[in-house]
Amino acid sequence: MSAEEKQVVNRRVLSGMRPTGKLHIGHYVGALQNWTRLQNDYDCFFFVADWHALTTDYADTSRVKGNILEMAFDWLAAGLDPEKATIFIQSHVPQHAELHLLLSMMTPLGWLERVPTYKEQRENLKEKDLGTYGFLGYPVLMTSDILMYQAGFVPVGADQVAHVEITREIARRFNQFYWLDGERRYTLDRTLAEEKRVWVFPEPQPLLTPAAKLPGTDGRKMSKSYGNSILLSDPEVEVRKKLKTMVTDPARIRRTDAGNPDICPVGDLHKIFSSAEKMAEVREGCTTAGIGCIQCKGWVADNIVTVLNPIQERRRKYEENPKLAWDILEAGSARARVAADATLVEVRESMRMSLGYPAPEKSAE
């Protein structure tokens, strides 16, 4: 691939999610809504990170395939379009494993141990045995996912920039050791002039996604593991039932007490799902005790249901015929394998490990 072609590839975006089953509205505002916009302007690759799921949940894989389908239903229902983006399953592109192996040979151990989430997750998931090679090395697998498609951008929140930085460091380290010759593909002559080098991997840039503060019904970050989430597939009656129990401004004990929507979890939902006019009405009513919390919750429920209704309508098509979603994933995986093969050809050639009988080294002239 020429330098000019690599510049085109740099319009490529790579992102993925672990298959945890049905998604909640936090996934929608935090990722899916942005992905549906990106697919119109970038060459997008979105993948189901089923191997990544094994880094913490390797002991029971019985629900992985079912979770993949449920998540695919939500992706497609939210607006991901297989005609605009490549949507695939990580484990259906085995080239990821080869690149992971090659990169792991040159990634310093200290780089992995300093990743912020390494100690954090081991502390938070004490009930699980995370003293495994796979868990320590998951940033290398993540790097392989990104570099496999020579992606120029990775959409992340500000708190995840460190994850992209280790990918950039590993790409830079690889490029220091190995490169292609723009004229002769690769060479045994490691004194090749700098201007003739063609790096295999671009260093991906974080594509910052605005981080919306989306609390769950108990006020903590929305998470299915906390049991505080509103699913994209929840029917209207369930959405309203969950919101009725949602915690509010702790200082507002009585109906006549004034509140503050800036410290109220329901207020945070309004900031995401309500119009500016409705938010102004909420602020006026809350701070003057002109409205009660039940009414305020009802307003935000109206707006959330308005967002969810078309998503759920599209989801029903895939629920009724799951093979439609599976076929999209399989077709996307086939396209991803083609792109992955092209990258691995360059990787192997740059490392002088290309397949086939070695050709004689050509003259520099």
Architecture of the largest domain, according to CATH? 3-Layer(aba) Sandwich
Find the CATH topology of the largest domain. Answer: Rossmann fold
- CATH class placement of the largest domain: Alpha Beta
Biggest sheet strand order reads 1-2-3
Bulk shape: elongated
Mean pLDDT: 89
Question: In total, how many domains does the architecture comprise?
Answer: 2
What structural class do the secondary elements suggest?
mainly alpha
State the CATH superfamily name of the largest domain.
HUPs
What do you see in this structure?
- This protein has helices at 3-9, 25-38, 50-57, 64-78, 95-104, 109-113, 116-124, 133-136, 138-148, 161-177, 236-244, 265-273, 276-287, 293-320, 322-350; strands at 12-17, 43-48, 85-89, 153-156, 180-181, 197-198, 205-208.
- It is mostly helical and 365 residues long.
- The chain has two domains: 3-213 and 322-350, 3-Layer(aba) Sandwich (Rossmann fold); 224-318, Orthogonal Bundle (Tyrosyl-Transfer RNA Synthetase), CATH 1.10.240.
- A three-stranded parallel beta sheet has the order 1-2-3.
- Helix 2 links the parallel strand 1 (12-17) and strand 2.
- The longest helix has 29 residues, at 322-350.
